[in-house]
Amino acid sequence: MTARFLTTRRRVLAAAAGIALIAAGTTTATAAVQNHNQPKPTVVLLHGAFADGSSWNEVTERLQRDGYEVVAPAVPLRSIAGDTSYLTGVLAGIPGPKVLVGHSYGGALVSQLAGTSGVKALVYVAAFIPQAGETLGGLTAKYPGSEIGPDTTNVITYPGGVDLVMKPGSFPTVFAADLSPREQAVLTAAQRPVAAAVFDEPVATTTAPASLPKYALVATQDKAIPPAAELFMAERAGATTVKVRSSHLPMLSHPKAVTALIEQAAKN
């Protein structure tokens, strides 16, 4: 009698355990399917000063190969406020979730656009991460190491404004020291001037929300933005930070590392 009771009880418990395992497995499988079915966010790549969207070509190709929609708009490079307004319109035409990625000056714009609908993460690549009231020039001067200045830039004056462009002999060493001479020459020829006023323009809007995930790549051989400044801003922002032994253009010299960080943010 006792033996039969114990045997029956074991069978009941085993059956219950089996049902629980099936239920747990079903829940896990359902969650996996739901996660798989979620659309990948569109990755928006914002270039910096003296550059254009082609500076992201190596990263764009890798992201597209991995199934991501990518938009690399032309940034006007006229003013932080004006460029932010223009890019707000660009983002309005991109449906669904978005990851914003900024290089150099583009990082300031990423921070200003952080509150845009659908933005799920911010990525800064050798970039400025300013807070309200700060200037890019002030952040650059906070630490030694930047070689951008009167000795390395030419001034372009025109009715209504003043632009800066890197001197042909300075661009390779300041921006692209770890790229080939052929790549340096092409980038030097294709650089886009930036309004000189952007470096003294205070960031007007609020700092990017603390709740929004942030990722930063610090280029430890950067001669445009001091690496110490990049690290300071990344840590202050609470960003998940990686360091790469790179010039100011890690998306060209280390595209694999940059792509990996962007995809980490996209999967958050």
UniProtKB/TrEMBL annotation:
Spell out the Gene3D superfamilies in the cross-references: alpha/beta hydrolase
Q: Does the keyword Hydrolase apply?
A: yes
- PANTHER family linked to this entry: AB HYDROLASE-1 DOMAIN-CONTAINING PROTEIN-RELATED, ESTERASE_LIPASE_THIOESTERASE DOMAIN-CONTAINING PROTEIN
The protein's name: Alpha/beta hydrolase
Signal peptide start and end residues: 1-31
What's one GO MF term for it?
A: hydrolase activity
Q: Which organism is it from?
A: Kribbella sancticallisti
Superkingdom as given in the UniProt entry: Bacteria
